Amino acid sequence: MINIYLSFDKKSFKFFRDKKLFNKYNININSNFKDASIVFFLFNSGNNKLLHSEFKHLKNKEKYDEKNEIKAIEYFIQQKKKVIVYLRSDGSSIFDNINNLIQKYPKDILLLRDFILKDEKEYNTQANSHIKYIIYKNHDYNNLRETKESMNHLKNTLCFTIPNNKKFAYGFIGKKYEKKFLNKKYDIFYVKNYREGQLNCILRKKTLDKVNDLKDKYKIFTESCIKEDYERKILESKIYISTWGLGESLRDDYFCLCNDTIVLKINTSCVKDFYCNKKSQKSQIIFFLKNIYLKIIL
Predict the structure, then answer these.
(1) Sign of the dihedral through C-alpha 211, 212, 216, 219
(2) Span 209-230, mean pLDDT?
(3) Helix H or strand E segment including 159
(4) Other Cβ atoms within 10 Å of 108 Cβ, number
(5) End-to-end CA distance of the chain
(6) At residue 245, what are phi and psi to the nearest 5 degrees?
(7) What are 2's strand-pairing partners?
(8) I need a surface site. Which of 32, 45, 133, 256 has the fewest CB within 10 A?
C-alpha cells in the first residue's frame, strides 16, 4: 500500500474522493502525515488557507506568498517525505523557483503541470511566458519590456490536470458548468475583456479585426454583455473563438466543452496540455486537444 498525505482539505476536490480509483492502484490517499511516504502539495494556489492548520508555522498569516510554498516543500523533504507538487497554472510560464528546487532535490520531487512547453531548451520569454513573447515579437513593436531567455526544464515533470476541480479555476469542470442546450442562433461568438496595456490585449484586438472581416459571411456576436447574457450567447453559438489570456487556457474553453460549442483556439502547438474529450448529451464528441487551430495571426 502506498500512503499519500494530502496537505490540503480534499472536500473541494472530487478526484481525491474517488475511493474506487485509488484502491485499484493500492493507494491510501487518506494517510496521516506520520505514516505517509509521499505528500501531495498544491503550488501556485493563490490561496493561503489551503494548507492544513498543522503546518501553520509555514504560512504567512497576512497574505498568500509563493515563498512559503517553497519553504513548505523543503520542510516535507526534510521530514524524509517524497513530494508530488501540482503546479496550478493557466499557462506554460516557466517557474524558476520550482525548477531550481527540483535541481536541488532531484530524487524527492515530482512536478505535475496543466501546461508545459514541449521542448527542454531555452525559450525567449516575457514575464517568464513564451506566448507573451510571441505576441511581443509579432505585434508589440514599441514594447520596451525586457526579453529573457529562460530554460524550460522537464526533469521530473509530467503533464496532468486534477479533474473535477472546484477549488481552483482550472481542471476539467463537471456538472457545475453544464447548462441547458439552446438553439444555435450564431455561427461565431467572440467577446473579450481587452485588458488595456497588457500583451494579451494586443492579441485579442488583432483577433477581433479578423473576426469582423467575416461578418458578411457569418452571423457573429461580438457585443459586450453581462455575465448571464454572455453564457447564454455562448450556448446559442456554434463556434467560440478562444484567444490567450494570462496563459493559453481560459475557463470559457471548459464551459464550451460541456455545452456543445466548438472551441477554436489560437495556434498553441509549442505547448503540451492534458485536456480530455468531452461527450455531450447530443452524442457529439468535441475534440479540444485535436480541435481546428485558428491560425489568425501567429
Answers:
(1) positive
(2) 92
(3) strand 157-159
(4) 18
(5) 49
(6) -110, -125
(7) 27
(8) 32
d(CA 88, CA 155): 18
Give residue 29's pLDDT. Answer: 93
**Sign of torsion over alpha carbons 81, 55, 49, 35:** positive
The rounded distance, in Å, linking the Cα atoms of 199 and 204 is: 9
Alpha helices by DSSP H, listed for the chain, are 19-24, 66-78, 96-104, 130-139, 199-212, 227-235, 251-257
Q: Over 81-135, what HEC string results? A: CEEEEEECCCCCCCCHHHHHHHHHCCCCEEEEECEEECCCCEEEEECCEHHHHHH
The predicted-structure confidence for 102-158, as pLDDT tens digits, reads as follows: 999 999 999 999 889 999 999 999 989 999 898 888 887 676 778 999 999 999 999
Extents of the domains making up the chain: 175-286
Higher per-residue confidence, 137 vs 288: 137
How many angstroms separate the CA atoms of 132 and 143, rounded? 12
As to burial, measured by CB atoms within 10 angstroms (0-12 exposed, 13-18 middle, 19+ buried), residue 244 is: buried
Phi, psi of 271 (to 5 degrees): -115, 140
Is the pLDDT higher at 92 or at 63?
Answer: 92
Which residue matches cell numbers 492579441? 203
Cα–Cα distances in angstroms (integers) from residue 198 to residues 50, 164, 224, in the given order:
30, 31, 19
The three cell numbers of residue 298 are 501567429
State the CB neighbour count (10 A cutoff) for residue 172: 19
